[in-house]
């Protein structure tokens, strides 16, 4: 499976631009070292940082990058002994803001998991961000990330990077609010961890549906 993954990655690099190679390598290193190695990322207070951005921004960026027809969003070109990195910063900025809700909500799934597993993680010498900032502040952060995803989603809409129909994502805020309240009341892996996943799915599925429409 890993060999197939690398072969498909090289095919994408060949069909687009060499700049996709270092991006793919970085994402692969993060994926491998997240749970493997002498000091996995998941055992440090970095799990949220190294899950949300690669999965939220990285996947969306690569998907748009390989399908962008007008020109290359980002390109790495070589000529003799020199190289040049060129990019469309405005398009990259737009992709960043469009993907921010996914970045925050995916990070929130990891955060919710770490909140629920705090006691067990300490026993297993896993010192996540919850251990360092405390459970109460972690729950506050969980709330901020959920509601922040909806606030920041206004930016690409107001900038004209997304159509106004995307405002129809906002009714899911009522559902997300309900899930947040359930998690605030009890942080149990078997009962309320799923609320973070439900909030993510509600936002993302409605957003995808609106893109199709």
UniProtKB/TrEMBL annotation:
<keyword id="KW-0812">Transmembrane</keyword>
<feature type="transmembrane region" description="Helical">
    <location>
        <begin position="193"/>
        <end position="212"/>
    </location>
</feature>
<feature type="transmembrane region" description="Helical">
    <location>
        <begin position="150"/>
        <end position="173"/>
    </location>
</feature>
<dbReference type="InterPro" id="IPR000537">
    <property type="entry name" value="UbiA_prenyltransferase"/>
</dbReference>
<dbReference type="GO" id="GO:0042371">
    <property type="term" value="P:vitamin K biosynthetic process"/>
</dbReference>
<feature type="transmembrane region" description="Helical">
    <location>
        <begin position="12"/>
        <end position="37"/>
    </location>
</feature>
<keyword id="KW-0472">Membrane</keyword>
<dbReference type="Pfam" id="PF01040">
    <property type="entry name" value="UbiA"/>
</dbReference>
<keyword id="KW-0808">Transferase</keyword>
<protein>
    <submittedName>
        <fullName>UbiA prenyltransferase family protein</fullName>
    </submittedName>
</protein>
<keyword id="KW-1133">Transmembrane helix</keyword>
<dbReference type="GO" id="GO:0009234">
    <property type="term" value="P:menaquinone biosynthetic process"/>
</dbReference>
<dbReference type="GO" id="GO:0016020">
    <property type="term" value="C:membrane"/>
</dbReference>
<feature type="transmembrane region" description="Helical">
    <location>
        <begin position="89"/>
        <end position="111"/>
    </location>
</feature>
<dbReference type="GO" id="GO:0004659">
    <property type="term" value="F:prenyltransferase activity"/>
</dbReference>
<feature type="transmembrane region" description="Helical">
    <location>
        <begin position="49"/>
        <end position="68"/>
    </location>
</feature>
<dbReference type="InterPro" id="IPR026046">
    <property type="entry name" value="UBIAD1"/>
</dbReference>
């Amino acid at each position: 499976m890993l060999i197939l993954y690398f072969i498909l990655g090289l095919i994408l690099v060949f069909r687009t631009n060499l700049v996709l190679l270092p991006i793919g390598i970085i994402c692969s290193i993060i994926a491998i070292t997240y749970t493997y190695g002498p000091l996995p990322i998941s055992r440090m207070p970095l799990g949220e940082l190294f899950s949300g951005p690669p999965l939220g921004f990285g996947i969306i960026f690569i998907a748009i990058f390989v399908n962008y027809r007008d020109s290359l969003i980002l390109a790495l070109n070589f000529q003799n002994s020199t190289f040049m990195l060129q990019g469309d910063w405005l398009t990259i900025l737009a992709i960043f803001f469009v993907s921010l809700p996914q970045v925050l909500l995916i990070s929130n799934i990891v955060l919710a998991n770490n909140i629920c597993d705090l006691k067990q993680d300490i026993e297993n010498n896993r010192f996540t961000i919850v251990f360092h900032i405390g459970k109460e502040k972690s729950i506050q952060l969980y709330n901020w990330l959920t509601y922040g995803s909806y606030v920041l989603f206004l930016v690409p809409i107001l900038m004209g990077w997304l159509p106004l129909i995307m405002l129809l994502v906002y009714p899911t805020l009522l559902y997300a609010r309900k899930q947040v309240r359930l998690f605030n009341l009890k942080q149990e892996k078997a009962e309320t961890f799923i609320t973070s996943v439900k909030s993510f799915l509600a936002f993302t599925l409605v957003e995808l549906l609106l893109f199709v429409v």
